[in-house]
Structure formats: structure tokens, C-alpha cells
Structures
1.
Amino acid sequence: MHGRKFSMFRHSASAALLAAASLGLVLTGSGCAKNPEAQFAWRDSTELLIPDARKTVQKTMHESFGTPHDLVAWARMPVQYGGLAPAAAATDDAAAGDAAPVDNGPFGHQLQLGRQVYMKNCLHCHGVAGDGAGPTARYLNPKPRDYRLGLFKFTSTLAPERITRDDLHRVVKYGIPGTYMPSFLLLDKPGTGDVNTKAVIEYVRWLAMRGEMEKRIDDELVDYSLASIDDEIAKAKNSYESAKASGEKADPPPSRSALTRKAAGDFKTYLAEDYADAVDGTADFIAENWIRADEEASLIVPKVARVTDNAASRERGRLLYMSDKTKCYTCHGHTGKGNGPATEDFWPKPGSTEKYANRGLHDVWGNKLSPRNLRQGQYRGGRRPVDVFRRIYAGIKTTPMPAFGGTVLKDEDIWDVVNYVMSLPYEPEVPSAGPAKAPRMAATEARQ
Amino acid sequence: MSTLTPSIEHAGGHDDHGPGHHAEPHSLSLLMKLPTFSRDHKVIGLQFLITTLLMMMVGGALALGVRWQLAFPWQRMPIIGDTIFAAHGGQITPEMYTMLVTMHASVMIFLVIIPILAGAFGNFLIPLQIGADDMAFPTLNMLSYWFMLPAIVCFAFALGLAPEWLSGVGGMNAGNAQGWTSYPLLSALPEAAPGSQMAQTWWLIGLTLIGVSSMMGSVNYLTTIINMRAPGMTLFRMPLTIWSMFITAILQAFALPVLTAAGFMLLADRVMGTCFFIPSGIIVNNAAPTVGGGQPLLWQHLFWFYSHPAVYIMLLPAMGMVSDMLACMSRKPVFGYKPMVYSLAAIAGLGFIVWGHHMFTSGMNPALGMTFMVSTMMIALPSAIKTFNWIGTMWGGRLQFNAVMLNCIAFVSLFIIGGLSGIFMAAVPVDIYIHDTYFIVAHFHYVLFGATLFGVFGAIQFWFPKMFGRMMNDTLGQIHFVLTFIGFNCTFFPMHLLGVAGFPRRYADPYHFPYLEHLLPLNQFITGAAILMGVAQILLLYNFFSSMFIGKKCGRNPWNANGLEWTTPSPPGHGNFDIPPICYHGPYEYSSPLSKDKDYLPQTEYVPLEQRRAVQAKPH
Amino acid sequence: MGKFWAVFFMVFAVACVALCAVAPYCGWWFPGDGKAHSTLGQKIDDLFYLILVIVTVTFIGTQIAIGYVLWRGATHNPNEKALFSHGSHTLEVVWTIVPSGVLLFIALYQMDVWAHYRIKTYFPQKMEPVAEVTARQFEWRIRYPARGKKLMPTPQPDDIYTVNDIHVPTGHPVAISLRTEDVQHSFFVPMLRVKQDAVPGLVIPVWWEMTDTGTFEVTCAELCGWGHYKMKAQVVAQSEDDFEAWKTTTAAEQFYDGVPRSATEVAQRPQGE
């Protein structure tokens, strides 16, 4: 009996210890341990800078934008951070009398809210830094947008301009059909004034500005990157080899460490003399672009109302579609199925003569892209006639879809193309008619 | 008294091999053979038991991941979030959440509950309880265990643990994510979900291996039970455990081929380009449109044709074992033995024609719905009869309130809740509302955890002495029981209410729906209770493993039970019975007036005719 | 100790009943105001409460029986053998027939509701679908026929499109055609008690009749991928006139060509800030 008691005690004691230990584990797991913090991933081009330059860029970025947990509302960026900036609050008392409701929240609250909404809904595809590389992204086709070039596809603005808040609002509200960007129509409860949507739009704009800032500074510092040092070594080596082959005397190629030291030295000078200006200039450039996007003048407004959608208009549209002026058919295909001959070609990478390894069109991020199948009735940028008009007028930014407005096509012509394109889903597929023939050209001329 | 009857008091003395304990096998003799390719049914049973207990911890950990997300959505998740999603502040992704849900169910169903009942206890108990030396096909039996290990590996790959060269996409975020029901097209089109790429293929392969393992077991059980019973062990003298294992094996043998076939069809759809389940013209993730003319509903029919009987595969053996334990711990015969057997058979029979109740909202022919509704209502009947009989068994008993008994009472008590909540679902119109809400989650956890696992907890402690010749610690067992019982009810009872509130299943973040916002605190409470319940299982594991070494030594029959297994040494040696058993009674002759000096009457104990006549003459 | 356990199991049973009793007051009950807003939903609720009563009575009965049995077992004289009984035929017959009667009653009682819900011959006569609801990963896209037209199986040039926003008229039964563009989804409107899977390759009619106007949330109830939880939509029930008016304005917005026509229209242009 005694033995039994003893063993029981042993049991209970060690079990209690075990239970306590595991409870402790759970507790430390849940609260006491240090939270890993979300981080803005750096661009590759930043990571490739020589250490001094990289640290400088990272410091600038930290100072101007902060981290996901410690946001910095940089007054130079045209973002509605929410609340009044401390400085502005003191000077702009007069503005308070305006009709616009006064935003009494603490400064930066809109950005904070935007971050919250973003972290909950957008992060896992678009990534912490808005680089379109969240954990889910690799499974998606098309890839989620990388905001960091400041470029968006579906805008209502002229070809060179950035996206407007309204455009972002539409995308968030209605989603992009045919992609994994879902509609967040009910992100806000009715009657709450779309606070979440507005906040997340500001946050996305802010991320885009942040990303563009980093990229542009990196571009300024391209001379101080490991890649350029590699290039230099390779070049020196080549000339040395060829010189040796031809029997000439030549300096041996410099060592990597020497070049890195030299770059570091150069960078020190650059930092002292030009860096601040470069950052300033970049910030101004970005801010101006984004401010201009929301100005009235950037908006595409058709000069004429939609041309009546009738058979004649569609036919004119069809002829334009098939014409060499627009060459729509080369990508979108003779029947509009998005399978034009251009999708079978090898295309060069932008800014170089090197070609992509796979056939077909690519966007500026290098993702393969298929021209829209116009017979699906699926309009990623919106199905209002004005949306399609704007797609044709200003093209689709970042993609090979060019801008026709103002130069190639008159607004009336664009409406004809719109009418033709939007009728395609409801028309029986006719065998490819080929480029327009002469007698039919007459119809177009007759209208003009 | 017959000399054929060894009992604990006399085990040593009656042993032909001489006095003392030399003949009693070493208490760890089964354990030591664990890593071998043993063909001994007891070793195989133990292999299954220990594997499934460990898998239970894995499945539980996955469940805690699910609970964490539901209590603290998009906040840092310990361990998983910290390791995989550190750059995102430790917040998991929705596909990770779906993976947790899927793999929790898959692990618990296919690697824990089915193998722990049929694999562990079926293997261990069937030959012992019917008085056989071993299974009919020992090699097949051995293979049935060793087919489970590759299945575990496949499931680990499905979890996203496959190396990148094997899976195409690596990383935990690529775990399979289409729910354990694997409804096409989500499961049939690799583009449809991140985890539905290679991970889903691994999952299907794992499932097939589990199926092969179960099938080998079933064939074995059927043959063994039919052919290898000891002399005198008539069908109606078999313990209810054996009856339930027998009926389970029939269910398994008939239902499983359907699932295996369906699994292969799905696999073919995924890797060979067939279209059994894929209709034409579907574009997912901008891949090329599908070409086939298949029917996704076909999968649901095939899947549930297995998986509804599987619910009973996951329940019936526990019912049988609980009947045994309740009778022993109440010191009373099972109330209504034959009705118990018939209701087992009825559940199994009806179990084949109720699968459609999983598909009331699926758009199948509505007239079929009516049929399934009536058969589903009717299947509640044998369950009710069994419940009443269990209560009847305890009625007027001399109850032994030890950990085994407590778990059995919990089984009955919780099974009642699980059964009653099932009636809501059987009523088709109500099911339309609660289908795929937490009401369902509550219901099947009450049945699968509340009933089956509590039965298993009882059974582990009841038959542990037979496995190791030592007792498990009862105090620890009772603490484990109380913690688990409280944790369990606090976790799953509120889920009924969540279900009524329309809280959908498998939502990574339900709270962005305004009508569910206010349910967050309740979910946090549930998560707390779930953590308590999870931690309590460490007690069970500790008690189980430590008692092998430091548990109180016991003889052959520590519970004074009647079954044949208690006449063997603990643990039984190779060939089980040192004295070939002859069966004279049913298994539940507790407190029988036939045995004067004790309140049990072992099945092997012969009672002379005149003594029986004398007792029968007296009214009792 | 035995008595403690008898009480322990009774406390658990009482706690279960008590929790269910207080749940409606804590908001842990039917969503919204707790009432179903469709005629069929009300029938479903009635049936739910009927079953709830039957189940509660059964639960209390069996738990009392368990408690009694445990208490008796705990107080059993340890020196006395337990009652030796192999069962009772009469009792078995009783507790077979009574539950089967109750179960059959439930089964037959609810057939009618189900028939109205799903069986075509019971559908309200002359019901044209108001819209086609297409589920896709991870949103609901809705197509309405133009004002005064019938919904065609294929898209028409003058169809009206919305996303995650389903408008229906009140006052008469309404039907939608439910389909999916990719994987299986399930159209679930908790406050209407309407649920129907959207199965790839099938177009499934779903009907209900609103009892009042209002906005009701739509969820997806069948796992459809990582964004399953994101499929948030709403059913907006409006009077017939409001519904038609809404259709008109939505059509006007959808065919907007971007040219401002009047000062009021300029003012109405959506503003992002």
C-alpha cells in the first residue's frame, strides 16, 4: 500500500510539473515572447547596393516612411494622413471655416486605419510593402499588383498620369473581374461613409509612393551597386584578356575589394554633396505626379457623347479594329478572342534587345499577359462605356495596350470601336475577315 | 470450481511452469517488439495505439492553430506564424488556415479515430476476447500497420512538408486546402487553390494507403471472428466489443472500395486529365477552360457513401467497448444484450442509406432528400435504444467510480447531446439553415470526440493492464477526465449557439460580417477551453507512458472482469492463452447468483448443472 | 466520491440547459433581430423550435435518469451484489416504439416545408427569376434583365450587372438562378434561412418570399478556396417601385459615357475623397 502511494505521488508530482511546464509554454507562446514585426521588404536593387549606400537608403526610407508598426506620415507626400499635421493645425485655422467637415482625429489616423485594413484584407496577396509578393501571390494568375512603380492598370487619367483616388475606389469597391482581386463592396457598413475604403486607398497610395521613392533613389545610386561593380570587373577582365591575347601589355583587372573601396569612397563624396538634393528632387517628382493625377485636367472626358450604338457604328468600329491604323487585331485577334498573331511572337524586354524566353506579350513586371478575349463580356477595368473608352484612349498602363486617344483616333472613332468591341460578346463568331477591303473603306469616309 | 479457471489470486499457483512469477512475461514484452515487423496481433495493436496517440497530439495542435485564428484573427500566431510568416508579423494566411482546418480533420479521422478503434483495439482485443491465438492472417495484419506509415508520410507532404523537388511548390503555405471532404472542383483543378496543387495529390495517395490498411484489417477481423472463436464462444456469447468490431468490419469492407475508387477517379482527374468530376468550360485562375462533361455531385455521392458509414466506423467500436466497460464497472450484466446487438446491426444497415443527408443543400434531386430524411430520422432509433440500454446497465449497479467508468458515463452523456443535435440536421428544412455552420461542427465533435474519444480514453485505461501488466494511475486518470470533460464541453457546447447564430464553418475571418462581429468574445472563450483540453491530453500521454514503467503491477484480471482476455497473462505471451479457453457463458454474468463467493463469473468458469438448477429454482 | 460524480454530471447537464436558456439574451442566437425574414424561413424557425422542445425534454429526461442511476449506484451497499438483470422486454418495446413515434412525427411534419422549398411542382406558379447570381472566387456577380424584360439564360447587351449586391422586390415570391463560374460555392442568407450550393455545371433556381424590406447579409457556406471568408454580399429587399427605380438608376450608371450633361449630374459623379 505504501509503495502504491509513493508511486502515485511520483505520478502526480511529475504530471503537475509537466502540466505547468506546458501551460507555461503556451503562455510564453501566446504573449510573453517578443512579437516578430512585419517588415517592408527591400527591393533587390536596394539589397545590391554597397553596404554604405544601402544603409543610407534604408535610413532615408525609415526616416521618411517608417516601418509597418511605426508609420511615419511624411508631409511631403500628397497623402491624406488624417487629422491635421501639427504644423498645419497651427497655421491653417482660417481654413477651418470651410464647408468641408473638419477632421478632428489625431494626425495620421487615416493612415493607421488604412494599415489595419490593409493588413487584414490585402497583405497576403499584395505583400507588406505592396510589392505584390505576399505568400498567396505565387499561386495567382494574373499576379497581384506591385504598387512600387506607382503604376496601375485601370485608370481614368491620361496616358502619362498616375491613378486617381476615384479609380482606386472603383477597383476596391467592384474588384477586377477575371482576376483574384475581389470586390470589397461591403468593406464598410452602410452609412459609415466608406472610412475603411478611403483609408486603405490612402495607404495603398502611400505604399506606392514609398516604393517609387525607394526605386528612384536606387536608380540614382546605381553606380554604387554590387551589380555595377561586377559589370566593371567583367569589362576590365575582358579588355585585359583580349589585350593579353593580342600580346599587348595591359593592367590586370582591379580586385573586387579595391573597386568596392573605391565605390565606397565615391559614395562618401556623393553623400556629402548630392544625396540630399537627389532625395529632395525625387520626393518632389513623386509628389507632383500624384497631385497631378487627381487634377481635373488629367481626367479623360470624351469630347463627344457616345455615338449611337447601331450597326453602322459597329461596322465603322470593326473596320478601325481591323485597320492598320490601330492594329487591334494583331493582339486581340480577328474575331476578338485575344489570340492575335502577336501573341505567338517573341517580344523584346523593355529597354533592351534581349527577348523573353516565352512567346506572347508581357507587362512591365515581366509577367506574361494575354490580350483580353473580347467575346467573354468581361471588362477588368469596368464595363461602363466610358471605361472602355478610356482603355482605348489612354491604353492600359504597364501593358502593351497603347494609347490611341488624341493622336491616332478621334473621340468619335473611339466610340465606334467601343460600340464594336462591346457588341462582340453577343454576336456570332464570324470567320476572320482580314484587314478591311476597299469598298468598305468608303463607308468610313462617307461618315467623315 | 473448475481448475481451468485461472484468476489473479491464483495465477501464479496454477501455472504449470512452476511457482512464482517467472512465467509471467516481462511487462514490456509487447513494447520491446514495437519497432519490429511483428506479426503478433498484440504488438500490432500497440503499434497502432501509440502511433495514433501521437497523431492525436498532431491533430490537436492543428486544431489549436484553427482556434487561435478564430480567437485572434490576423494577429500573430505562436509557432506557426513566427516561423513561416515572420516577415508578415506572424499573421497566417487564409490558405494556411484552410490547410489547418483540412489537415486537422484528415489527421483526426484517418490517422487517429479510425485506426485507434479498428487498428489498435480491434487488433488487440479480437483474438483475446474470442479466445484465438492470433488473427487469421497475421502477415496481412502486419502489413495493415506498415501501410499506415507511408500514409502518414503522405499526409505530412500534404501538410506542405514535402521537399520542393518533390512537390513543385514548397513550404508550409502550400498545404492542401480543400477541406477533408475534398469537394471538386476545388480539389480536382490544381489551379483552384494554392494547396490543391501537389499537396492534394499527396493527400489522395495517403488516403488510398489508409484505405488499403483498413481494408486489410477488415478482412482479417471478419475472418477471425467468424472462424477462430474458442469452443463455446457462440455468436451471442461474444462481447459487444467483438460484435461492434465485426459490424464495423462489414461496414468498412463494403463502403471503403467506393471511396478508394472515387479517390482514384479524382487522382486521375488531377494528374491524367480525365473529367469524372469536371464539367466543361470552367475557367479557374485564368487557366485554359476545362473540357470535360463530368459531374461534381458524383464525388459527393461517392464520398459520402463511404464517409457516412465511416462515421459509424468511428463510433460503433467505441459503443461496443463502452458496453463492456460499463457492465464491468457497474458489476452488472449489460441491459438488453440482444437489442444492443440488433441495434448495432440496424445502425450499420441504415448507415448505408443515409449518406444523402450531407447533401441536402447540394442541389440533388429534392425527392431523394425526402427519402434520406426519413432514413436519417430512423437511424436515431437504434442509437436511442442503445442509450437507454446503457442507462439500464448502470441502473441498480454497484458503480465503481474510477477513471474508466467516468469516461464511459461521459460517453453516454455526451453521445446523447450528439445524437439529439443530429435530429435538427435530419430535419431537412432546419438543416438548410444549419448546414455548414458551427452547429454541425459541434454535432460531430460531440459524436466523434465526446463519444468516441471518451470511450477510447476509458478503453485505454481499462485494457492497459492487459497490455503491460501494470495499472495506469487512477488519480491522474480522473484529473485528466475532469479537465478534458470541462474543456470539451466549454469548447464544443457553445458551438451549437454559434451555429444557430449562422456562424459558417471554415472561415478564416468571420468577424468582418457585421452579423457575426459580436461572437468574437465567445470564440475567445472557446479557444481558451480548447487550450485547456489540449494541455490535459499531455496528462494522458504522461500517464500512459510512465505507467508502463512505474504503474502498479497487477495480475491477470485486475478488474474482476468476465471476458476471455482476462484469463491470459498480462501481457499475454505469444499465442495468448496458456490454458486453451472454453467458453461457458455470455460475457456479462456479473453479480450472477451462480457464483457465490465473487460478483463475477468468467466466461471460462464452468458451473455444474445441479448448481445452475438450484439457482434457477430460486426466484431472484 | 460516487455522489460527487453523480452531482458532477448533473451540474454539467444543468449548465447545458442554462446556457441554452440565456443564449438568446446574450446574442448567441439567430442572427439579426432573431426572426426569419422570409416566409419559408419562418416555417424553418417554427420547426427548429418544435425540435428544440422535443430535444430539450428528451435531454432533461435522459440526464435525470443518468443522475438517478449514478446516485443510486454511488449509494449502493458495497457489500451487496448488484442487481442481476439481463434486461426487460417490455422496457425495450416501450423505448423502441415511443422514440420511433416521435421521430416519424418529426419526419412527416416537416415534409411539407421541404416540398415547398425545393420541389418544383410546389413552387409558386409563374415565377420568373429576377436575377442570375454567379458565384466566383471570391465574390458574387449578379446579372439582371433590363427593366421590363425577362432574364435570358445567356447575357444580353442591355443586362444590368452588379457585384455583391443583390436587389429583390418584396410582396411576392422571388427567384434567382444560381450558378458558379469556377468551384463549388453555397449561397447562404442567414437572416432569410436560405441556403443553396452553387454547383459547377448546374443552374439551380432558388426562391423565397421576403416578409419585409431591409438589407441582409449573404455568405458563402461551402469551402471554395483561400478567400472563402471574403465572399460577403448583401440582399437588399425593396418595394416593387423602389426596385424598378433602382434598376433604372443602375442601368443609367452602367451605360454612363463619361460626358457630363448637366450640373446635377456633375455633382453626382462619385467622389473618392
Note: Chain C touches chain A through 32 residues (CB under 8 Å).
2.
Amino acid sequence: MAVRVMIPTPLRQYAGKQESVQIEAGTVGEALSGLTAQYADLRRHLYNDEGKIRSFVNVYLNDEDIRYLSKEQTPVKENDVLSIVPSIAGGAPSLNAVNRSILRCICS
Amino acid sequence: MLRLSVEQLDAIHRHASRDYPAECCGVLLGQDAGEVKHVTEVAPLANLRHDTARAQEFMPLEDPRRESERNRYLIDPREQLRVEKDARTRGLTVLGYYHSHPDHPPRPSEYDREHAWPWYSYLIVAVDHGIAGDSRSWVLSEDGSVFQLEQLDVTNVVSHAQVSRTGKPNPAQ
């Protein structure tokens, strides 16, 4: 079964500059491993050192987060769309870091 | 280079001031023209850190006593998916995201770097006691080790004169 995997803009440079890639797969996990077999440079962005999907990577099957389905074991159907959604997070230095830098100033 | 209009930067600043002392966040949409990312739309998004329970599901904070919506932002991935789909149907690309640093300079923190993706522009607005000011755009280096300052080209689209303040922060509020 062919599913379409949508590649977010920061990762397109590692996927032949394509917006989406068609992959033959029976489950979400197979689709992602098929994708990274084809585009090896994507691997470090999608998986951690233990071979698990990184926590910063969200995967949606059509409109559902696979965390709330059967994760990587979720079966896929012909023409399903799998979207890789990178977590967007950040923020100002925490008070801890600020305190440390103030201490460094005071102490130096 | 990240190119956006005075009006778009003003809209981001108003959002940053309105949400002070919390951090605000939003998305930059437009066209990728290789050397230049041309922003055609900016859209405010909710900071999911206001919804502590749901935020913790996606990205737990290490130290909730020191971390909150005042120094952390997180975008709901469902919202991102919606934005991505909507942008695609209109021929637009997600070029990056903006967020504010309440009472901190517009420099990426270590936390910003740890959570950043390559290629995206990360526009940071400093908000000093509720007043948005200095704005800088940053792009993560290829190996993820450091943020690099990205040239910000603020254009005056009202007169179509493309008045450029290249490399300078925003105009005075």
C-alpha cells in the first residue's frame, strides 16, 4: 500500500528537496523506516540513538496523532497521508540560567 | 535573509506586548526564494504552555517551578498541522516561527537551541517591561551546535518603495 509522507520544510533538504514522498508500507513504523532507508540523512532527525522516534517529532496519520492510535504499529491504508510535524518550542533563559550567569558576573 | 514588511513586524510586536509577561509565538508564512525567505503572512498562535496539562503531554518541563509560559513557549502540533495544510493549499511555505523573550534580549537561549530545527527562521522579539523592541532572526547551524544571526530585511510595502533597513532591528515603536 502506498502512503504519502509529508516532509516539513526543515527536513526537505535531507529528502531530495521533496515536499512529500510515496512509500509502500503496512504500518506507520514501516513507512518511516522505508523513508529513512531511502533518505538516510533523515534518520538522525527522526530517530534517537535507541532507534525510537524522537520526542520532538510528532507524526500524524491523516488528522490523528499516532501517540493516540497504536503509535508505530498503527496500520496504514492506501492513500493515507502521514505528516511529520516538528515540535516548535523554546523560550528565554530560565531563572536558573540567569542566576548562574549573574553569579558568574559577581564571582569573576 | 528574512524579508518582511514593517506592518508584519508591527503585528508581531503588538502580539508580543499584548501577551507580556507571557511569551507569545506565531508562524511566518511565505515564499522561499533561495537566498531570501519572503514573508507574506504572519499568524499568531497560542502558547500551549498556558495549558499546562496538555503541554506536559508533549514536552514535559524539567523544572516547572522555574519554567512556565513566562519563559517557555510550545506550539500545539495540531495547530501546526492545520497551518501547514492551509499554507499548502494557498501555495505558501512555513518559513519559520516567531516568539518573544519577556525582559530578555532577543538572543536564543540554550533551551531555544536544543529545541530548534535547521533551516527555519526563528524570529525573537525582546519585550522590555511590556514594550516590544529589539527583534532578531536566527537560523540553526547545519550541525545544530549554534544559532547564526540571519539578516532581517524590513521593507515598507505601503509605499512599495522597498525601503530597506537591512540587518537592522525593527524601527522604533
Note: Chain A touches chain B through 28 residues (CB under 8 Å).
